[in-house]
Design a protein that fits this description.
Elements (H helix, E strand, L loop, with lengths): L6 E4 L3 H13 L4 E3 L12 E5 L6 H10 L6 E6 L3 H7 L5 E5 L5 H15 L1
Parallel strand pairs: 1-2, 1-3, 3-4, 4-5
Protein name: Histidine kinase
InterPro entries: CheY-like_superfamily
GO molecular function: kinase activity
Protein backbone atom coordinates (compact mmCIF):
# COMPACT_ATOMS: atom_id res chain seq x y z
CA UNK A 1 0.00 0.00 0.00
CA UNK A 2 1.33 3.41 -0.93
CA UNK A 3 -0.16 6.37 0.90
CA UNK A 4 0.41 9.98 -0.03
CA UNK A 5 -0.94 11.25 3.27
CA UNK A 6 -0.43 10.02 6.83
CA UNK A 7 -2.72 8.17 9.15
CA UNK A 8 -2.68 10.53 12.14
CA UNK A 9 -2.62 8.91 15.57
CA UNK A 10 -4.03 10.78 18.55
CA UNK A 11 -2.79 8.83 21.56
CA UNK A 12 -1.61 10.39 24.83
CA UNK A 13 0.31 7.32 26.04
CA UNK A 14 3.75 7.51 24.37
CA UNK A 15 4.53 3.74 24.54
CA UNK A 16 1.13 2.92 23.02
CA UNK A 17 1.67 5.58 20.34
CA UNK A 18 5.08 4.12 19.49
CA UNK A 19 3.62 0.61 19.31
CA UNK A 20 0.81 1.74 17.01
CA UNK A 21 3.26 3.59 14.77
CA UNK A 22 5.52 0.56 14.53
CA UNK A 23 2.70 -1.93 13.87
CA UNK A 24 1.00 0.24 11.25
CA UNK A 25 4.26 1.01 9.46
CA UNK A 26 4.89 -2.76 9.18
CA UNK A 27 1.51 -3.03 7.47
CA UNK A 28 2.49 -0.39 4.90
CA UNK A 29 0.69 2.59 6.38
CA UNK A 30 2.24 5.99 6.97
CA UNK A 31 1.45 6.53 10.68
CA UNK A 32 2.26 9.89 12.23
CA UNK A 33 1.84 11.46 15.65
CA UNK A 34 -1.13 13.83 15.54
CA UNK A 35 0.29 15.73 18.53
CA UNK A 36 3.16 17.34 16.62
CA UNK A 37 2.72 21.04 15.76
CA UNK A 38 2.73 20.60 11.97
CA UNK A 39 0.18 17.74 11.94
CA UNK A 40 -2.89 18.81 9.97
CA UNK A 41 -5.89 16.53 10.54
CA UNK A 42 -7.64 17.95 7.47
CA UNK A 43 -4.95 16.53 5.16
CA UNK A 44 -4.65 13.04 6.70
CA UNK A 45 -5.84 9.80 5.10
CA UNK A 46 -7.53 8.83 8.35
CA UNK A 47 -7.54 9.75 12.04
CA UNK A 48 -7.09 7.14 14.78
CA UNK A 49 -8.16 8.64 18.10
CA UNK A 50 -7.99 6.99 21.50
CA UNK A 51 -11.08 7.72 23.59
CA UNK A 52 -8.80 8.86 26.44
CA UNK A 53 -7.05 11.41 24.22
CA UNK A 54 -7.36 14.79 25.97
CA UNK A 55 -9.67 13.00 28.43
CA UNK A 56 -12.42 12.85 25.75
CA UNK A 57 -11.40 11.56 22.34
CA UNK A 58 -14.93 11.76 20.96
CA UNK A 59 -15.11 15.38 22.13
CA UNK A 60 -11.84 16.04 20.30
CA UNK A 61 -13.30 14.49 17.14
CA UNK A 62 -16.42 16.64 17.56
CA UNK A 63 -14.19 19.74 17.70
CA UNK A 64 -12.49 18.67 14.47
CA UNK A 65 -15.83 18.03 12.77
CA UNK A 66 -17.07 21.45 13.93
CA UNK A 67 -14.01 22.97 12.20
CA UNK A 68 -14.92 21.20 8.96
CA UNK A 69 -12.45 18.29 9.17
CA UNK A 70 -14.29 15.50 7.37
CA UNK A 71 -11.43 12.97 7.27
CA UNK A 72 -12.48 9.38 8.10
CA UNK A 73 -11.90 8.52 11.76
CA UNK A 74 -11.49 5.48 13.97
CA UNK A 75 -12.11 5.70 17.70
CA UNK A 76 -10.32 3.24 19.99
CA UNK A 77 -12.20 2.61 23.24
CA UNK A 78 -12.24 0.15 26.12
CA UNK A 79 -15.72 -0.94 27.16
CA UNK A 80 -17.55 1.76 25.16
CA UNK A 81 -20.75 2.92 26.79
CA UNK A 82 -24.10 3.48 25.11
CA UNK A 83 -23.52 7.20 25.55
CA UNK A 84 -20.20 7.01 23.71
CA UNK A 85 -21.82 5.06 20.88
CA UNK A 86 -24.64 7.62 20.73
CA UNK A 87 -22.15 10.50 20.53
CA UNK A 88 -20.15 8.73 17.81
CA UNK A 89 -23.04 8.10 15.45
CA UNK A 90 -23.37 11.60 13.93
CA UNK A 91 -19.57 11.90 13.63
CA UNK A 92 -19.25 8.94 11.27
CA UNK A 93 -16.41 7.34 13.21
CA UNK A 94 -15.68 3.63 13.25
CA UNK A 95 -15.43 2.11 16.73
CA UNK A 96 -12.75 -0.43 17.53
CA UNK A 97 -12.76 -1.87 21.02
CA UNK A 98 -9.55 -2.30 22.97
CA UNK A 99 -7.57 -4.28 23.65
CA UNK A 100 -6.61 -4.49 20.01
CA UNK A 101 -6.64 -8.13 19.02
CA UNK A 102 -5.70 -9.51 15.66
CA UNK A 103 -5.99 -7.27 12.62
CA UNK A 104 -9.04 -5.21 13.57
CA UNK A 105 -7.33 -1.85 13.22
CA UNK A 106 -5.53 -2.76 10.00
CA UNK A 107 -8.70 -4.20 8.48
CA UNK A 108 -10.71 -1.11 9.42
CA UNK A 109 -8.06 1.18 7.92
CA UNK A 110 -7.94 -0.85 4.71
CA UNK A 111 -11.74 -0.71 4.41
CA UNK A 112 -11.86 3.02 5.07
CA UNK A 113 -9.03 3.81 2.67
CA UNK A 114 -10.47 1.59 -0.06
CA UNK A 115 -13.83 3.33 0.18
CA UNK A 116 -12.13 6.75 0.22
CA UNK A 117 -10.20 5.94 -2.94
CA UNK A 118 -13.34 4.66 -4.66
CA UNK A 119 -15.32 7.81 -3.85
Amino acid sequence: MVLDRPVLLFESDQPVLSSLQFALSLEGFLPADGNVPDADPATAECLVIDQRYRADGIGFLQELRDKGVAVPAILLATNPSRELRRRMKPLGAVLIEKPLLGNELTDALLTILASSKAA
